[in-house]
Amino acid sequence: MAEYTNNTLQTVSPGETVVFTLAPSPCERGLVRWRSGTGNFLLSGWIPRCINRNRCYCRRINSANYRVNFGANIAVPTGETVGEISLAITVDGATVPASTMIVTPAAVEEFFNVSREIDVDVWNGCCETVSVRNISDIPILVQNPNIIFGRPDLAVTY
Fold first, then answer.
1. Which of 52, 97, 110, 158 has its CA 20 to 30 A from that of 79?
2. What single-letter DSSP state applies at residue 8?
3. pLDDT of amino acid 147
4. Over the chain (158 residues), what is each successive 10-residue block's mean pLDDT?
5. How far apart are the first and last CA of the chain?
6. H-run or E-run covering 66
């Protein structure tokens, strides 16, 4: 499991990604790569090889499965028109529709908590880029974003 966060208030423009600055629990295996101060995470499709191929299910798996869990507090900044605001998780730049998080604050700087969890499959030997993007028409304030990457398929074996 790898966890990334950012404790400072940030304004995220439309189409831009949420930025993360801290790694309280970084990936030590190289399966999740990230540069501090960015919002893009590169997930590796590495699948473990088995010693006894006759009794191992690993060789039949074609992709690595990541569980991506995101949460944050979001609001409309001062000076913007109050209305619907939203974030979504993206995979290789494409928005995952089921990951859309929408709130409609009644006033500026009225924070709401949003969260979503999705599965991302990465083909063996490939990589996928994951980020969280502002898909609203206006800038939004983001406070305390937190993203966690887990690999349920490695939980028992490693």
1. 97
2. S
3. 98
4. 95 98 92 94 84 56 90 97 97 96 96 97 93 97 97 64
5. 11
6. strand 63-75
The SS3 assignment for 146 reads strand
Domain 2-154: which CATH number of 3.30.70.1350, 3.40.470.10, 2.40.50.180, 2.60.120.40: 2.60.120.40
Residue with tokens 């502002």: 134
Residue 132's DSSP bridge partners are: 89
Do residues 91 and 85 touch, judged by C-beta distance below 8 A?
A: no
Query: What is the maximal distance between C-alpha atoms in the chain?
Result: 64
Joined together, the tokens standing for residue 27 give 């990936």
State whether residue 117 is helix, strand or coil.
strand
